[in-house]
Design a protein that fits this description.
heterodimer; A: mainly beta; four-stranded antiparallel β-sheet; 1 helix; elongated; B: mainly beta
Chain lengths: ~180, ~325
């Protein structure tokens, strides 16, 4: 069932069964190869006993741990008095159930559906301040309790020290 | 076990009827394959600025590459899609440490507003370095690179620096259009319709296969730089670094402890161009660490090859307000050409 180049036909060309079989084999070959590193489940039934396949198994989605499961953005939006900023979040993809601002510069990204995960956080900011960011995953089995999420820490260089600050940022979630 | 609704095909043999129902089944198969491709890949030209087969999902970078400097400094690009900018035509360096990267138009970068950056300055061998990013519009991304100008253990002053870095820029998925030539199903007609005839299906399947081969090998393995080649979870334990986990696709060979806060990851496969590593520290398995510990990880470009990446890890001392080299667990994802 490998791909074979087919010739185009012209009027009154004889069309045999082998041509149609090969045309299907060409389609099936694409399907087979694409399923190597992409999910292949499209129905709401799954062998794990869940009613839906896990995200990486969904039809056409990339199924490897190297591809982020989700990408989230945090924006600082001015309040009506324009004196304070409130973060707002958007995210695409799977695995993030919520994002919380815990305190200034500290955010919690709660994760579901993965036993091992991590996030890569990047401050999105201009040149006036120097920003630093770290993220730390917490797993259900860790000694840190039953948390299942990622802490995000944002610091800025203020007066020779690193001080927690709010900033816009992007974070990618990887998981397996 | 993955289940799908692929229609399938019963292979025909000599003297089997080749009626419209059989051909309709082929159309159904093609429609399924076309839809499969379209979940996270562009399928057609003309619908957007992308090319057939390009990855097209919010979670997959629109482009990944390296930005590096040569004497001058002259900024250069390596590996970025929309690479007509190779040679530095798409970069502008208005101030020390500031780099404006201009990509192709119509990429919808600003709506997505997501970038990953790893500082790869040579200064990272001896000092922590960082790069932050800012998206200004749909075509340009600004990067600001800085390094610790104080000595390690003696201050916390930072200065702008023209240095190397690697970046992954994400974008909103681009508009797409299906390749599927269309219905209605045949009911007994001759195969002469422009949209349903055999040639249209043959051409369509060829387009779809060509699209697959843009970012994947004939065996279905990813070859596009936008999809990372490998990943590793690296643990520091009992005085040495070790691989806790690594990619099933491209297994990492070894991690070597070079010194305090320095380790080197060796790949099993050699890439064709130097890699683009992205790094994030871990906490859960670092038993000696605390939540408040704060690290910066650098990957100097001269120590990134087609087979290896070296990591330099620095930890901030919140009491002394200084930096020192230190060990920690971390994750890394590596893109490559």
């Amino acid at each position: 069932m490998s791909h074979q180049k087919l010739f185009k036909v012209i009027q009154d060309s004889p069309l045999g069964y082998q041509t149609l079989n090969q045309l299907h084999d060409n389609l099936a070959d694409i399907r087979t190869q694409m399923r190597v590193e992409h999910g292949g489940s499209e129905v709401w039934f799954h062998a794990r006993g869940t009613i839906a396949p896990p995200p990486e198994d969904r039809l056409g989605h990339h199924s490897m741990v190297e591809v982020p499961k989700s990408v989230a953005q945090s924006y600082l939006i001015p309040n009506f008095n324009a004196l304070t900023l409130t973060p707002a979040w958007l995210w695409n993809g799977q695995g993030i159930s919520s994002i919380w601002k815990v305190s200034v510069g500290q955010y919690l990204l709660s994760v579901r559906g993965y036993s091992r995960f991590w996030g890569f956080v990047t401050p999105l900011a201009g040149s006036s301040l120097t920003y630093f960011a770290n993220s730390r995953p917490f797993y259900p089995s860790s000694a840190n309790g039953s948390n299942s999420g990622i802490w995000l820490y944002l610091y800025s260089l203020v007066g020779g020290d690193l001080v927690e600050v709010d900033s816009s940022f992007a974070v990618t979630l990887h998981g397996q | 076990m993955p289940l799908d609704l692929y229609p399938g095909w019963t292979a025909r043999v000599r003297k089997d009827p080749l009626g419209p129902q059989g051909f309709n089944r082929l159309l159904d198969c093609f429609r399924w394959v076309d839809a499969f491709m379209g979940v996270e890949h562009l399928r057609s030209t003309g619908a957007s600025v992308g090319v057939i087969g390009e990855h097209n999902a919010a979670e997959i970078p629109r482009t990944v590459g390296s930005v590096y400097t040569t004497v001058g400094p002259v900024y250069n690009l390596e590996g970025f899609r929309y690479g007509s900018l190779a040679g530095g035509a798409g970069v502008h360096n208005p101030a020390v440490g500031t780099l404006i990267l201009t990509l192709g138009s119509g990429l919808m970068l600003y709506q997505h507003n997501s970038v990953q950056v790893t500082n790869c300055s040579e200064s990272g061998i001896s000092k922590p370095c960082v790069t932050q990013a800012q998206l200004n519009d749909d075509t340009t991304v600004r990067f600001y690179s800085k390094f610790l100008s104080s000595a390690l253990g003696a201050g916390n002053t930072w200065a702008a620096e023209d240095g190397h870095f690697v970046a992954a820029v994400y974008a909103e998925p681009l508009p797409d259009a299906e390749v599927f030539p269309g219905y209605p199903h045949l009911k007994g007609e001759f195969l002469s319709s422009a949209i349903t005839d055999l040639n249209a299906t043959i051409i369509g399947s060829d387009i779809t296969r060509a699209g697959m081969l843009v970012g994947h090998s004939a065996a279905g393995l990813h070859t596009a730089r936008e999809v990372a080649r490998t990943y590793a979870a690296i643990e520091f334990s009992t005085g040495a670094y070790r691989l806790l986990d690594s990619s099933a696709r491209n297994v990492c060979a070894t991690v070597t402890t070079i010194g305090v806060g320095i380790c080197e990851l060796t790949f099993t496969n050699a890439w064709t161009l130097p890699a683009q590593p992205f790094v994030m520290v871990d906490y859960a398995r670092n038993n000696s660490g605390a939540v408040a510990d704060f690290y910066v990880v650098c990957c100097p470009r001269s120590l990134i090859t087609t087979t290896k990446v070296r990591y330099y890890i620095y930890k901030y001392d919140f009491a002394a307000l200084t930096w020192a080299r230190a060990d920690t667990d971390f994750f890394t994802v590596v893109h490559a050409g």
